[in-house]
Design goal:
6-stranded antiparallel sheet; 3-stranded antiparallel sheet; 6 helices; 36% helix; elongated
């Protein structure tokens, strides 16, 4: 048998801690998880405590019993925990991509204008959007309805509904989370807005 490196030892310890944490999060006793994974309670206890070698077939069974995948069970801790945003000064945007789901992104935006009065300027595109107001008060136009969102309040809506966001009586700052489709829709709108600005100059 090959000697275990420090990295192997760290991963081994991480996997054991993860198994226990997932079991506890489900509210299961050792006995309950052991039954679900077709293991003896003493075997599971020794696996969690590092007294028994981790076998691949047992990890596969445990992953299934814990409603996760083997990949997630043995994933190493990411080195790049902290990330910096991409900054779009022209639109007052800061954008972060979500690594776990590269299709999603988080956007921080400062707004100074009220929402458009003209319904023709409201946008609709596939996807779903979630936003929280960090400061100030935002107005969300959604279909034929108008919502006032105060600081620390959040809104979630399907972006197939015509929508527009603006401020109420002063600047506001929002943090939005977009799924893949909503992000694409906003990128296309941004490109159209830039084209319109260019045509008007």
């Amino acid at each position: 048998m090959l000697p275990m490196t420090q990295e192997d030892g760290e991963l081994d310890s991480l996997v054991r801690k993860r198994i226990r944490a997932l079991r506890v999060a489900q509210g299961w006793s050792l006995e309950e998880l052991a039954n679900r994974a077709n293991l003896s309670q003493s075997s599971l206890s020794r696996i969690e405590n590092g007294q028994r070698r981790l076998a691949l077939d047992q990890l596969v069974t445990l992953a299934r019993a814990l409603d996760t995948s083997l990949d997630q069970l043995v994933a190493t801790a990411a080195d790049d925990v902290v990330t910096s945003p991409m900054i779009d000064g022209a639109h007052g945007l800061m954008r972060w991509s979500i690594k776990g789901d590269p299709g999603m992104s988080v956007v921080r935006q400062r707004m100074t204008e009220p929402p458009p009065e003209n319904p023709a300027r409201m946008r609709a595109h596939p996807g779903r959007e979630w936003l929280v107001v960090l400061s100030g008060t935002a107005i969300l136009m959604l279909g034929h309805r108008r919502f006032r969102i105060e600081t620390n309040q959040a809104a979630e809506f399907p972006t197939m509904l015509p929508h527009a966001i603006g401020t109420a009586g002063g600047p506001c700052e929002i943090l939005g989370i977009f799924d893949r489709d909503a992000r694409r829709g906003h990128q296309r709108e941004g490109a159209r807005d830039l084209d319109a600005q260019g045509a008007g100059e």
